[in-house]
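Notebook entry, cofactor series.
This is the third protein in the set we're modelling with a bound small molecule. For this one the ligand is flavin-adenine dinucleotide. I'm keeping the input format identical across the series so the outputs can be compared line by line later. Sequence and SMILES below, as received.
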Amino acid sequence: MSKNYDCIVLGVGGIGSAAMYYAASQGWRVLGLDRFPIGHASGSSHGQTRIIRQAYFEHPDYVPLLQSTYQLWDDLEKTSGESLFQRTGLLQVGDSQGSIIQGVKASAEEHRLTVREFDNAALRKAFPLFNYRDVDVGVLEENAGFLRVEKCVSAFARAAQSQGADFIDGVTIEGWDRGAAGYEVTTSQGCFRGRRLIIAAGAWANQIMPDLRKRLRVIAKHQHWFRIPDERTQLEKGCPTFFFETEEGYFYGFPDIDGNGTKICEHSGGTPVENPLEINRDIDPLDLERVQHFAHHSLNCPRGIHHDHRVCMYTMSPDEHFMVDLADEQVAFACGLSGHGFKFAPVLGKALVQLLEGTPRADMDFLKLKRFNGDS
Ligand SMILES: Cc1cc2nc3c(=O)[nH]c(=O)nc-3n(C[C@H](O)[C@H](O)[C@H](O)COP(=O)(O)OP(=O)(O)OC[C@H]3O[C@@H](n4cnc5c(N)ncnc54)[C@H](O)[C@@H]3O)c2cc1C
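Returned structure with ligand:
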């Protein structure tokens, strides 16, 4: 099979679905290829929810991108007619000198974002759903919340298809190369030709882009759901999304949505994954124990019953910042999203198209590979 496209998107998960949409919106003839169907649970974009926030503790340079991404998620909600972004507020708790509180405040100050600060006594009074250490303080970002992750991916894919994009699943991408007139993508279903490529392969990026092999590290992360017999944990009762820095690590959780239970996970840690296709999807008793320990100590409510679990993957870059760049004149990629990339899906998808058009966002320069120049 051989067809010619203006742009082929390699990997149609979180970022690829958005890239497919923005590429198709240019009037380009677009093809998306993936091994799995849209919204699948085998990569990094599944498990009901993803946190979205602007006062970014990881680095203030992400804030302008987050301001764009908020606008683009709102646009997608309008285009799709779906509710994707729930502004529950995000409560972040930790030692006042810890990286979370310090990082949130630095981003908020530099970009004049509104966050409400709580000292220990105010925190206990305002959010009695949680328990706190004496050193804990809190920041509430009211404009933050969560994205319904699978619905977001499906909405982008549908929007792309309504702009004329083709999507083929059940395809294993084996490699790509520069041909006489553009690029050739070799797959289990034959060869596809495109003038441009966008690579958004998530945990498989180092296989599709062997040059990156040394830089990316994939880890398994567990998502747990608990049924907690306390109505204050419910979305409708105003439960915020929450993120805690504790002595044991970073833990976060979401309100109980649609009666599915309260999702609680550990952000820190993780088990190395050699082959993402053979990842162990069983419950890791140690991980569950750590999450239960956090829940029992930090939630001021009756113990929940563990009732669901999903394994997902973080693809870590060396400095835990994204890697977004050109791999060749007309080949753009986003990878190494290091467990915090989903909220950026629209802005990254659009940025990949802008890279190919030769009009890159200057404020994304910090994500280019040149920052590793000099590393072995
Ligand atoms: C448990 C967990 C919690 C997270 N929490 C947050 C959060 O709260 N907020 C946030 O912003 N981010 C969060 N993240 C990170 C975020 O979800 C990811 O950064 C993002 O979803 C990655 O999207 P992606 O498109 O890179 O990968 P994916 O969505 O996995 O897409 C990659 C696609 O490429 C396809 N593919 C790859 N190789 C091939 C091949 N050879 N042939 C065919 N198809 C191929 C795959 O099948 C897949 O569909 C979390 C991640 C996890 C795992």
